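Lecture notes, structural biology module. Today: joint structure prediction for complexes of two components.
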Amino acid sequence: MLNPADQAFAAQLTKAIPDLRIEAPEPRYLQEPRGRHHGNGGLLVRPQSPAQVAGVLRACNAARVGVLPYGGGTGLVGGQIIETGPAPVILSLEKMTAVRAVTGHVLEIEAGASLQDAHDAAENAGRLFPLTIASQGSAQIGGVLGTNAGGVNVLRYGNARELCLGVEAVLADGTVISGLRHLRKDNTGYDLKDLLIGSEGTLGIITAATLRLFPRPAALGTAMMVVPNPAAALALLELAETRMPGCVSAFELISGQGLAFLDAVGPQVHQPFAQRPEWSVLIEIGLPAGLDPQDALAGLFEAAEDLVSDGVIASSDTQRAQMWTLRENLPEANKRIGSISSHDISLPLPKLAQFIDTARRELVALGDMRINCFGHVGDGNLHFNAFPAEGRNRGEYENLRGRVAQVVYDLVDGFGGSISAEHGIGRLKVADLERYADPGKLAAMRAIKTALDPNGILNPGAVLAQN
Amino acid sequence: MLNPADQAFAAQLTKAIPDLRIEAPEPRYLQEPRGRHHGNGGLLVRPQSPAQVAGVLRACNAARVGVLPYGGGTGLVGGQIIETGPAPVILSLEKMTAVRAVTGHVLEIEAGASLQDAHDAAENAGRLFPLTIASQGSAQIGGVLGTNAGGVNVLRYGNARELCLGVEAVLADGTVISGLRHLRKDNTGYDLKDLLIGSEGTLGIITAATLRLFPRPAALGTAMMVVPNPAAALALLELAETRMPGCVSAFELISGQGLAFLDAVGPQVHQPFAQRPEWSVLIEIGLPAGLDPQDALAGLFEAAEDLVSDGVIASSDTQRAQMWTLRENLPEANKRIGSISSHDISLPLPKLAQFIDTARRELVALGDMRINCFGHVGDGNLHFNAFPAEGRNRGEYENLRGRVAQVVYDLVDGFGGSISAEHGIGRLKVADLERYADPGKLAAMRAIKTALDPNGILNPGAVLAQN
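The predicted structure, tokenised, for the full assembly:
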């Protein structure tokens, strides 16, 4: 059982780390983006070095006080919010934002820097850091790694995990692991980096990371193409990857329902097709010098004549930006409509089209709903969200919500998919993980948690249920 | 303390798993490729299913008998050899070789299959499994993953780790983890896959894996180019990657010493340059449709006129094969010469040229030696090996051997490199890991080992020293 981060503990902390300011958390540290959960936080600390982080953790561990790592606060599964139980110390690394080093291949950056900071640092070095998510202005590197963020460029460049070469991290007992490697190959012992990445702050606090930088493609091409159904979208992806192996960086599925939501509630965006297609894809490619991306996309369009009925190839940066603006505003339109239940799932590609058909059929059998299914279909990741019928609101579906999620997750599980593709488990999916995860995996996870954080102080209640 | 795998234990094992044959290990299970170490093995078991593997581990765990996972036996750091202490059960998965499934993106294959089997299965499906190492005819998938093998294509496609989507594995207590995911994105809990990969069989036994398949590039191009020094080789790499981002699949540094060894002791191979260059690189690219790789390499050669003094672009599959045959025979020539000390190291790219200069200087100051420095320079991995002066033999350098390794590793460590880039720790580098690893990392490794294998039965003495 943990103890609250109360004034007595604040006094201990001050004694242990005299130059660390201990604050009362402002309301922004107690919120999450959907505004549905409200946190309970005792003390806020914003350390300025790994040594201070180690000091905080040592003190919390000794006093059995919980530590809530708070990054940009953009997570969607409640990993950053403790609603009940003893008030934790909220640990924000927002004062640790330094770019420690940049080379042609590696960016060494502190965990409190935003993802946008990493993009900017890469661009200033003439390089690319490809991880791209809608919230990158706020999301911090620590959170991006803690949740193994994905986004739109995973198809070509991989998840946060694959883009990180090493981490500096602090364990529950204050042990600092200095692992800021600049190496593609390093087989010296267990892969702690990947254990910490995606552990959502429950095994250690990442304080800095080395991130892989890439050469910028000589030329980018972007297009939207209309397909009759998701199966055709996947066939188009296969064709694109066969013609341009490793060059397709994004392949996003967009449903007519999403476009209709944008039309109905905004944000107002430019839509390339006057008649809103039931299914379309946004495709982006980056090519070596010597190939024109517009020609390549035109060639793909031609070769895909059986799969694609209409298409627009961006002929300017403005058009390219318009296509991405459309895509990136889909979640905001969803938010304005208000979902009954949202699902961040992934599926093996050969099962994806069948899943969409089956899940839609089973959900509408439950009640009158609208489905907005969209996402990073190139890497198997769908955002499969259920919304109220037109003229109704989410409150009217309260009693269906749990059933909707269960139908979706049961199907996902049956198809060998994941109930959390890129958002993680946080606190909102702890029970789902218990239900769907392999029991052997859960047992091993608990053993590792106990080994590295025996008092359970790190992000208590996230990922794994508390004992 | 462990107990030996003696006849009494054999009787217990037979009782626990009646349909498992228990054998005496043939000599081939007690050898390693360099012939310098000889193993001690009590019993050999070759289970045919994860359930049988689980049975073996449960029995060994209960009786505190060590388990030595034996794959293709090609490892170079003694991970497959126990020389002293209680005789272990040698566990070979050579009877588990099934290709369980192949899709356009994923190969599901059992751990006893050879790496070549995986290549063949991918090719039969019109796809590519890119991990390529010289020993792939013998090396087994379980060992490839257990050691996180690298090889020549890491630059473009990544290590074994990045090519594996999921594993089925058995923990020390017989718990089976069923994690054969076909997913690029899956954030449901701790990353056990990556913890097991590279743990060299000390945390669990991988029994099957899902591997990523790739579209085959439309066209491959291969060339050898002569550079004045390693710094120029790295500048050439930078130029190649800038012109063809993501398309350079291999970039191998070859030293004149290596070519001289081939000339002196064979194997006889075709050498493209009549006058053996002091430094050259082998470069391979794979391009999208629409680009001719020979043109692209010619264009690179032209653009690199300040860096490259001579070059040969393969104009046929035969020529391409000749270049790779040269590269792949360098280790055999080394073996025939007989090294004083070999080092599988990696360095941050900006430090690599300076390392080669400095290390060479420091080593020749120790004694009269020849250095053959070659390797996967594109990913920072060097094989930096010291050989006797001409006319002398390795025996004469016995008293220098330890000092040579220490000079190399101290320098590597000082430059932020790795003392084991792709071969792992095994038993031969356990003391080196103790010396050079971050103490926090070692402490966390020990905690994890104790949590998952409290009796220390799995590959005892590998990676971490036994208590």
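Point to remember: Chain B touches chain A through 96 residues (CB under 8 Å).
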